[in-house]
Amino acid sequence: YPKAFIFDLDGVITDTSEFHYLAWKKLADEIGIKIDREFNEKLKGISRMESLDLILALSPSNNNLSADEKERLASKKNEHYQELIQSINATNILPGIEVLLKEIRRNNIKIALGSASKNATEVLKQLGITEYFDFVVDASTVTKGKPDPETFTTAADRLHIPYEACVGVEDAKAGVEAINKAEMFSVGVGEIKHLGDAKYVVQDTSELVFEEIVKRYNDWNL
Ligand code: G6P
Ligand code: MG
């Protein structure tokens, strides 16, 4: 059996990745840049400022914004985002997730969160699932975001679990890369064309079944 599960938040535990996308789209509209869902795949898992930089790079006229101006735009996106997540609650937990968390707990396996979001703690609170997590790694905990492995290795270190005994669950390409670099077992949730590097890919969270993940983990760990 694995000894710890480390979950990404947005797009794995909850449907907030859609709200991140809508907030970025609104900000991009305001500054005259078009983004779509395909482009949004690149924004998944990376920090707020890195996302802004990728969006600004789509339009040469925004090439030399001052640091202050970029801060202002990033804050504005966060205001849009916070407005969208204001009313989230347990109904925003993705299918299968709460059953999975319970099953992991029942088997005395540790659970951590590994998120790039500064809103992670607040989102967990609103969903009412804070108590499942033994440790929360968010944007304030690490210096190097995904695809660097630091998010996942920090969680494992704090739980005192060896990396090869950890399962990481991600919906972002950058996140899967981070898990693989940490030499943990990577589970991808979403389309295989984005998550092909994951050791095990499921299409959506309803397919995240404890026994199946453990079986795949054991095969990998032989
Ligand atoms: C996660 C999401 C990204 C988001 C990032 C920063 O990684 O997948 O879409 O941009 O967190 O979130 P924040 O709430 O700090 O702006
Ligand atoms: Mg995610």
TrEMBL record:
<dbReference type="InterPro" id="IPR051600">
    <property type="entry name" value="Beta-PGM-like"/>
</dbReference>
<feature type="binding site">
    <location>
        <position position="24"/>
    </location>
    <ligand>
        <name>substrate</name>
    </ligand>
</feature>
<feature type="binding site">
    <location>
        <begin position="8"/>
        <end position="10"/>
    </location>
    <ligand>
        <name>substrate</name>
    </ligand>
</feature>
<dbReference type="InterPro" id="IPR010972">
    <property type="entry name" value="Beta-PGM"/>
</dbReference>
<feature type="binding site">
    <location>
        <begin position="115"/>
        <end position="119"/>
    </location>
    <ligand>
        <name>substrate</name>
    </ligand>
</feature>
<feature type="site" description="Important for catalytic activity and assists the phosphoryl transfer reaction to Asp8 by balancing charge and orienting the reacting groups">
    <location>
        <position position="146"/>
    </location>
</feature>
<dbReference type="InterPro" id="IPR010976">
    <property type="entry name" value="B-phosphoglucomutase_hydrolase"/>
</dbReference>
<dbReference type="GO" id="GO:0008801">
    <property type="term" value="F:beta-phosphoglucomutase activity"/>
</dbReference>
<feature type="binding site">
    <location>
        <position position="170"/>
    </location>
    <ligand>
        <name>Mg(2+)</name>
    </ligand>
</feature>
<dbReference type="Pfam" id="PF00702">
    <property type="entry name" value="Hydrolase"/>
</dbReference>
<keyword id="KW-0460">Magnesium</keyword>
<feature type="binding site">
    <location>
        <position position="77"/>
    </location>
    <ligand>
        <name>substrate</name>
    </ligand>
</feature>
<keyword id="KW-0119">Carbohydrate metabolism</keyword>
<dbReference type="GO" id="GO:0005975">
    <property type="term" value="P:carbohydrate metabolic process"/>
</dbReference>
<feature type="binding site">
    <location>
        <position position="51"/>
    </location>
    <ligand>
        <name>substrate</name>
    </ligand>
</feature>
<feature type="site" description="Important for catalytic activity and assists the phosphoryl transfer reaction to Asp8 by balancing charge and orienting the reacting groups">
    <location>
        <position position="115"/>
    </location>
</feature>
<dbReference type="InterPro" id="IPR023214">
    <property type="entry name" value="HAD_sf"/>
</dbReference>
<dbReference type="InterPro" id="IPR036412">
    <property type="entry name" value="HAD-like_sf"/>
</dbReference>
<feature type="active site" description="Nucleophile">
    <location>
        <position position="8"/>
    </location>
</feature>
<feature type="binding site">
    <location>
        <begin position="43"/>
        <end position="48"/>
    </location>
    <ligand>
        <name>substrate</name>
    </ligand>
</feature>
<protein>
    <recommendedName>
        <fullName>Beta-phosphoglucomutase</fullName>
        <ecNumber>5.4.2.6</ecNumber>
    </recommendedName>
</protein>
<feature type="binding site">
    <location>
        <position position="146"/>
    </location>
    <ligand>
        <name>substrate</name>
    </ligand>
</feature>
<dbReference type="InterPro" id="IPR006439">
    <property type="entry name" value="HAD-SF_hydro_IA"/>
</dbReference>
<feature type="active site" description="Proton donor/acceptor">
    <location>
        <position position="10"/>
    </location>
</feature>
<keyword id="KW-0479">Metal-binding</keyword>
<feature type="binding site">
    <location>
        <position position="8"/>
    </location>
    <ligand>
        <name>Mg(2+)</name>
    </ligand>
</feature>
<keyword id="KW-0597">Phosphoprotein</keyword>
<dbReference type="GO" id="GO:0000287">
    <property type="term" value="F:magnesium ion binding"/>
</dbReference>
<feature type="binding site">
    <location>
        <position position="171"/>
    </location>
    <ligand>
        <name>Mg(2+)</name>
    </ligand>
</feature>
<feature type="binding site">
    <location>
        <position position="10"/>
    </location>
    <ligand>
        <name>Mg(2+)</name>
    </ligand>
</feature>
<keyword id="KW-0413">Isomerase</keyword>
<comment type="similarity">
    <text>Belongs to the HAD-like hydrolase superfamily. CbbY/CbbZ/Gph/YieH family.</text>
</comment>
<dbReference type="InterPro" id="IPR023198">
    <property type="entry name" value="PGP-like_dom2"/>
</dbReference>
